[in-house]
Structure to design on (117 residues):
């Protein structure tokens, strides 16, 4: 009597491979998240430097810190808008409808009037 034995090999521990579009979305998320963390960290450092010891800083350093603080306010506003007001969906490219150039019923506009071809 014959015995049939089948062996199944699963590579990579059986993990299903992610779609490249999903991998790109994950990469973009982590890149945006890292940029946001760096911006908030730098903004926090500027605020800490401005508030911590203002008497020990030279006047030129105070002016530079104030300029950097003012420049970061719109960036923080845009980051807040990005994370709390948008849907985080990738923009979709609209598909163009197929053209019917060979259709004899197409109507062409010539000199402001509609003419049947």
């Amino acid at each position: 009597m014959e015995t049939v034995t089948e062996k199944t090999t699963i590579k990579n521990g059986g993990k299903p491979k992610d779609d490249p579009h999903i991998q790109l979305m994950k990469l973009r998320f982590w890149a945006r998240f890292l940029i946001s963390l760096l911006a908030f960290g730098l903004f926090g450092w500027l605020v800490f430097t401005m508030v911590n010891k203002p008497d020990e800083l030279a006047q030129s350093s105070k002016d530079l810190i104030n300029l950097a603080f003012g420049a970061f306010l719109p960036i923080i506003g845009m980051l807040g808008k990005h994370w709390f007001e948008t849907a985080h969906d990738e923009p979709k490219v609209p598909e163009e409808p197929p053209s019917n150039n060979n259709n004899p019923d197409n109507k062409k506009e010539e000199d402001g009037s509609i003419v049947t071809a």
Summary: The first helix runs from residue 20 to 52.
